Amino acid sequence: MELLDAARAVREKAYAPYSNFKVGAAVRGASGAVYAGCNVENVAYPEGTCAEAGAIAAMVAAGETALVEVAVIAGSPDPVPPCGGCRQKLKEFGAAEVPVLMATTSGAELSMTLGELLPGAFDPGHLEGS
Ligand code: THU
Fold first, then answer.
1. In the 3-class helix/strand/coil scheme, how is the chain assigned residue by residue?
2. C-alpha pair distances (Å), 9 with each of 4, 38, 45, 96
3. Which residues are known to be catalytic?
4. pLDDT on residue 129
5. Torsional class of 129: left (φ above 0), alpha (ψ -120 to 50), beta (otherwise)
6. Are 75 and 61 in contact (CB under 8 A)?
7. Protein residue with its CA nearest to atom 14 in ligand 1
8. CA-CA distance, 9 to 71, in Å (whole number)?
9. Residues in CB range of 14: below 8 A, 6 or more apart
10. Distance, CA 27 to ligand 1 centroid (Å)?
11. Residue 1's pLDDT is what?
């Protein structure tokens, strides 16, 4: 599976000296192109960024603002779901039906939609009438 392969490959590049928890993510833009990102930690811990944020930034830098598929992989015993902040970041560019494949380096997989991961999301409609 090409998207998961991209996430698996970029995970190797993760900079995670503080948690030792490497994460790789890949998103497929509406064009079909694949964008990958890894977590990049910082000695000032809150300044670290998640793998999903990197993949999204690469997509936007390439000129795309819609994603149709997501894959995330980590070396955890169970598939790691995107953190809360990343769910909101993904939701900015993806519909509720977008599949998010969560995988482990040992082969476990779990698929959920963005809508399942972030029900009741804050969206642009909530800004109206303010
Ligand atoms: N991490 C991600 O990259 N994505 C997630 O969705 C979960 C957490 C990273 C952040 C940090 O570098 C490490 O995993 C441990 O939390």
1. CHHHHHHHHHHCCCECCCCCCCEEEEEEECCCCEEEEECECCCCHHHCECHHHHHHHHHHHCCCCCEEEEEEEECCCCCCCCCHHHHHHHHHHECCCCEEEEEECCCCEEEEEHHHHCCCCCCHHHHCCC
2. 9, 10, 24, 27
3. 52
4. 75
5. left
6. no
7. 21
8. 12
9. 22, 23, 24, 38, 39, 40, 51
10. 16
11. 59
Query: Does 30 sit in the ligand 1 pocket, CB within 6 Å?
Result: no
**Residue 31: HSE in the Cβ half-sphere, 13 Å Cα cutoff:** 9
Q: Is the CB of 14 under 6 A from ligand 1?
A: no
- All domains in the chain, ordered by first residue: 2-118 (3.40.140.10)
Cβ of 21 closer than 6 Å to ligand 1, yes or no, is: yes
Tokens read off for 51: 């793998």
Task: From first to last of the 130 residues of the chain, give the pLDDT tens digit.
Answer: 599 999 999 999 999 999 999 999 999 999 999 999 999 999 999 999 999 999 999 999 999 999 999 999 999 999 999 999 999 999 999 999 999 999 999 999 999 999 999 999 998 889 997 6
